[in-house]
Design brief:
This protein is α+β, with helices and mostly antiparallel strands. The chain has 6 helices and 8 strands, in the order E-E-H-E-E-E-H-H-H-H-E-E-E-H. Helix content is 32%, strand content 28%. The strands form 3 sheets. A 3-stranded antiparallel sheet has the order 3-4-5, sandwiched between helices. A 3-stranded antiparallel sheet has the order 6-7-8, with no helix packed on it. Bound molecules: zinc ion (ZN). The site of zinc ion has 6 residues, from loops.
Length: 257
């Protein structure tokens, strides 16, 4: 059995404006694998569906904006050029119209791209959100493998792009903090500027270990025992410090009971 998936484009008043083929599935003998869509089939259908829908939307947007918004005169075309837009469901290639600036504008003679002005960022916000989320939880390499396996994001994704996108999001979030940024640094009054803060101290490594010591020769292990805790702190500039205590026999602990 053959199953065809088509997109039917209708105008607002219900008139059919076009029918486009999205995918064709061949259904064989029913098996657990054939009962549901495979990941590859689902990715292919979503990618083709999205490309079909967006091509129509770009056409409508271009038709609306080709006339000058100030004087209404039809724009003079310079040509077309492709714009690549990365999304969760694949890379879209959008055909953008380039127009000459209208005579009524002070910058006459220049050209501009309709879609380039609409899409200054070439990665969909939802894809950027997923990239950023997983990059903050996993390594760049594991995030790349995860996204590549699950989503039809194409071959233009790589570790360097993930790292650059994460950096841009981090810079933008830092900028959005503005005055609140100072509040994330503890014990520093707001009057102290960030660039006047001292360099951080060398790293300090702390190790703690605890054990229970039981008296020998008793019937149960619930009597005559104590807990020993020992620790060591080491910095790059010193040989370290040691500590050890038995809290059952600690003077402060006994006094508080
Ligand atoms: Zn004009």
């Amino acid at each position: 059995m053959k199953v065809k998936i088509q997109v039917i484009i209708e105008s607002d008043d219900g008139r059919v404006q076009g029918v486009e083929k999205v995918a064709c599935l061949m259904l064989g003998t029913l098996t657990p694998e054939k009962l549901v869509l495979s990941l590859a089939e689902a990715r292919g259908i979503l990618q083709a569906l999205q490309q079909s829908m967006r091509a129509r939307q770009v056409g409508d947007y271009t038709a609306e904006r080709i006339n000058c918004p100030c004087c209404g005169k039809r724009g003079v075309q310079k040509g077309h050029h492709p714009i690549l837009f990365r999304t969760l469901f694949g890379k879209l290639t959008l055909n953008s119209l380039r127009l000459h600036q209208c005579d009524c504008q002070p910058t006459t003679g220049k050209t501009f791209s309709l879609l380039a002005e609409l899409l200054p960022q070439r990665t969909a916000p939802e894809l950027l959100y997923l990239e950023t989320k997983w990059c903050s939880l996993l390594s760049f390499g594991m995030t790349f493998d995860l996204l590549q396996e699950v989503l039809p994001i194409g071959d233009d994704l790589n570790v360097a792009r993930l790292r650059n996108n994460l950096h841009k999001v981090a810079v933008r979030m830092e900028a959005e903090l503005e005055d609140e940024r100072q509040q994330f640094v503890e014990n520093v009054p707001n009057s102290v500027p960030m660039n006047s803060m001292p360099d951080p101290a060398p790293p300090l490594a702390v190790a703690l270990y605890g054990a229970y010591v039981h008296a020998a020769g008793l019937e149960t292990r619930k009597e005559n025992w104590f807990e020993v805790i020992v620790g060591k702190s080491i910095t790059a500039a010193s040989e370290g410090r040691y500590l050890a205590f038995v809290h059952n026999y600690d003077d402060w602990n006994r006094a508080s009971q």
